[in-house]
Amino acid sequence: MVASLRQTFGERVRAADAAHGEATLEIHRDDALEIFGALRDRPEFAFNFLMDVTAVDYLGQSPRFAVVYHLYSLPQNHRLRVKIRVVETDAWVHSLTPLWKLANWAERECWDMMGIRFVGHPDPRRILMYEEFVGHPLRRDYPVNKRQPLVPERDPIETGWKF
Predict the structure, then answer these.
(1) What is the DSSP letter of 107?
(2) For position 109, what pLDDT does the model report?
(3) How many CB atoms lie within 10 A of CB 123?
(4) Sign of the dihedral through C-alpha 13, 16, 21, 22
(5) What's CA 51's distance to the chain center, in Å?
(6) Burial 127-162 (b: 16+ CB within 10 A, else e)
């Protein structure tokens, strides 16, 4: 599959390898929407299921973060991991919500926990932490003993919280 990916996407593939039976592709964020669209729509790939979106913090390296997408093709029964590296001072990628609905909550979680913005996301609110929470708790430099503002308990139904 790696050879096919390299042949199809050419110079837009920054790195590709296969280990333990799973292919990994690294691309640039500017090519993401086009490449993910092709991965979903082209019959030889047919990655119709976005399984997960997460991020890795490589504290001390540049670029610091990698946004990692796990794709699965139900018709082809194969998997693909796609990485996009971003620097800390410009930590954003394009939202994949137009391609896969699952990207909505997964990207919100990634924003909430790691602070990576998803440009074009339809609802970029925190999903796990409360709005007053300061910082992103899964970053490797997040202070574990940091005190957060206390907020009164809120009933989500009375406050009009939307799901």
Answers:
(1) H
(2) 97
(3) 11
(4) negative
(5) 11
(6) beeeeeeeebbbbeeeeeeeeeeeeeeeeeeeeeee
Helix axis angle, 2-9 to 32-41, nearest 10°: 130
Whole-angstrom distance, CA of residue 62 vs CA of residue 59: 8
CA 26, 16, 37, 110 torsion-angle sign: negative
Mean pLDDT by 10 residues, the chain (163 residues): 91 93 94 97 96 97 97 95 97 97 96 97 92 92 88 78 64
Nearest in space to 23 (alpha carbons), one of 81, 76, 67, 85: 81
H-run or E-run covering 83: strand 78-86
Q: How far apart are CA 95 and CA 32, in angstroms?
A: 9
